[in-house]
């Protein structure tokens, strides 16, 4: 996204992180998703005492966008408190992201605000998607 949109996307991911419910891992994560129409949906991780019922920030943001009728995405920014390492989405999140194409950017950030950008297809190479069910 252009500079102004990118800075907003990065800021919204950091803001979403502050809402994380993570009493077990104490690992807050926030995500902000930019739709093709220019709207931003944010999400945070929400843990559960039954660990497998928790949901990651990336999937929360995607589910919020989908529930509002958006299925085409341009970019996502992900924020955490990791110091020296860029935050990356887990495998389940990568597969959920892949459901909506591979041609969008994922901004991986560090706690200091620095980031790198990867195409989703770089994060999940040789992936399986909806079009594969039609073969």
From TrEMBL:
A GO molecular function held by the record: cytidine deaminase activity
Alphabetical list of InterPro entries matching this protein: APOBEC/CMP_deaminase_Zn-bd, CMP_dCMP_dom, Cyt/Deoxycyt_deaminase, Cyt_deam_tetra, Cytidine_deaminase-like
Entry EC number(s): 3.5.4.5
Pfam hit, one: dCMP_cyt_deam_1
Domain of life: Eukaryota
Domain CMP/dCMP-type deaminase stretches: 4-131
Any one GO BP annotation for this protein: nucleobase-containing small molecule metabolic process
A GO cellular component annotation in the UniProt record: cytosol
Keywords linked to the UniProt accession: Hydrolase, Metal-binding, Zinc
Annotated positions binding substrate: 45-51
Active site: 58
Keyword S-adenosyl-L-methionine in record: no
Top-level EC class as recorded in UniProt: hydrolase
Catalytic activity: 2'-deoxycytidine + H2O + H(+) = 2'-deoxyuridine + NH4(+); cytidine + H2O + H(+) = uridine + NH4(+)
Binding site for Zn(2+): 56, 90, 93
Record carries keyword Metal-binding: yes
Cofactor(s) of this protein: Zn(2+)
PANTHER family xref list: CYTIDINE DEAMINASE (PTHR11644)
Functional summary from the UniProt entry: This enzyme scavenges exogenous and endogenous cytidine and 2'-deoxycytidine for UMP synthesis.
The family this protein is said to belong to: Belongs to the cytidine and deoxycytidylate deaminase family.
Identification of the protein by name: Cytidine deaminase
Organism: Probosciger aterrimus (Palm cockatoo)
Lineage of source species: Eukaryota, Metazoa, Chordata, Craniata, Vertebrata
Gene: Cda
């Amino acid at each position: 996204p252009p500079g102004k949109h990118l800075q907003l996307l990065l800021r919204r991911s950091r803001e979403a992180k502050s809402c994380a419910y993570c009493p077990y891992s104490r690992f807050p994560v926030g995500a902000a998703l930019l739709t093709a129409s220019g709207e931003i949906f944010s999400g945070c991780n929400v843990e559960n005492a039954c660990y497998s019922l928790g949901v990651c920030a990336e999937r929360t943001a995607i589910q919020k966008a989908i529930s509002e009728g958006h299925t085409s995405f341009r970019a996502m920014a992900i924020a955490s408190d990791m110091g020296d390492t860029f935050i990356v989405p887990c495998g389940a999140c990568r597969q959920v992201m892949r459901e909506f194409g591979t041609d969008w950017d994922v901004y991986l950030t560090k706690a200091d605000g620095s980031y790198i950008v990867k195409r989703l297809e770089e994060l999940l190479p040789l992936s399986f998607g909806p079009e594969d069910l039609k073969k």
